[in-house]
Amino acid sequence: MTKLAHSPREGSRALDPRLLWTRRIVQLLLGLFLYGIAIALMVRAGIGVSPWDVLTQGLVVQTGLAFGLLTNLIGVVVLLLWIPIRQKPGVGTVLNVLLIGPSAQLGLWIIPQQHTPWLQGLVYTAGLVLLAIATGLYIGARLGPGPRDGLMTGLHARTGLRIWIVRSGLEITVLVIGWILGGQVGIGTLAFALLIGPMVNVTLPVLRVPDGATPASTEAAPAAQR
After folding, report:
1. What's the whole-model pTM score?
2. Whole domain around residue 43: which residue ranges?
């Protein structure tokens, strides 16, 4: 007897929209939570952090406010900068602003400050690897870019400048301001600049949720910014 061919409808069960939508939400929330923990690991390593976190540290020094709270406040300010460049946030953008700060603060409460050089390197490396995984998770959920990514891509679209020029300009600006305010710049800052891009290029394709779950939403650029 001739074997009947499977219909496209039968093969589409692997892409059940409800299951993929659930995966996207869970993956987004997990990615944002782990992103905050990764930031806390790198801060507690004490050998330098990413440019945006240097800015946050500098504001902590100047204001005495909690790191997590300032992370949220900076996210809100950056999101407001989307208005003149006409960027539209997604649900992932809003949750990014709300959730990474509390997660980072939780990590800072749990993780002790490191002072031994080999432990500093180990903790920083763990944070950097975790951050690359977390970035792949939340960007791969395809529910909207982080506020800093959206600012970068929006400025790129409005000015016509190359994306790397816009990104470098933003990161150098916040790095210098943060350093002047008292944020920590070190070998970890350089490691972040050199390594996070290639690492996210590995994690993002692996963790990207397949197409077909829901109507298309704005995706973040493949960059490790919140």
Report:
1. 0.85
2. 18-207
